[in-house]
Amino acid sequence: MRSAVLLLAPVVVMLALEPACGEDFTVTQKGHQFTPQDLKVKKGDKIIFVNDDDRTHNVFSASDGNRFDLKAQRPGAKGDIVLENAGVVDVRCAIHPMMKMTITVE
Ligand SMILES: [Cu+2]
């Protein structure tokens, strides 16, 4: 029993030290524009959408495999997503059709 605990201890330590997977990216919304308008991420990265504008936005995507909807974000609001499937993701604002950006998930 004791030897089993001793054998497992290094595994537990390694799991605890495992870094959080994925990188964080920030996309801002200001003046009816996303910045950046092209973003490359890897599966599992976190993308944080910040509304730096003086009006409400609603970020969403209808792209297959990576659909999401952050719902209405008031000025100053933040919301994040994690995209799990490789592909090109068309990101829009449901309120302002001219707002567009593309996220490429590798
Ligand atoms: Cu908008």
N-end to C-end Cα span: 45 Å
Rough shape?
A: elongated
> Which class in CATH terms?
Mainly Beta
Number-wise, the strands total: 9
What is the domain tally? 1
Helix content, binned percent: 10-25%
Beta-strand percent range: 35-45%
Which CATH-level-2 architecture?
Answer: Sandwich
Overview of this structure, please?
The mean pLDDT is 90. This protein has a single domain (21-105), classed as Immunoglobulin-like (Sandwich). The termini are far apart. It is elongated, with a radius of gyration of 19 Å. With 106 residues, the protein is α+β, with helices and mostly antiparallel strands. The strands form 2 sheets. It has a 5-stranded mixed beta sheet with strand order 3-9-8-5-6, with no helix packed on it. It has a 4-stranded mixed beta sheet with strand order 2-1-4-7, with no helix packed on it. It contains 1 helix and 9 strands. It has one helix spanning 2-17; strands at residues 24-30, 33-35, 38-41, 46-51, 59-61, 68-69, 78-82, 87-93, 100-105. The site of copper (II) ion has 5 residues, from loops.
Secondary structure layout:
Elements: H1 2-17, E1 24-30, E2 33-35, E3 38-41, E4 46-51, E5 59-61, E6 68-69, E7 78-82, E8 87-93, E9 100-105
Parallel strand pairs: 1-4, 3-9
Antiparallel strand pairs: 1-2, 4-7, 5-6, 5-8, 8-9
The protein binds copper (II) ion.
Copper (II) ion binds next to loops.
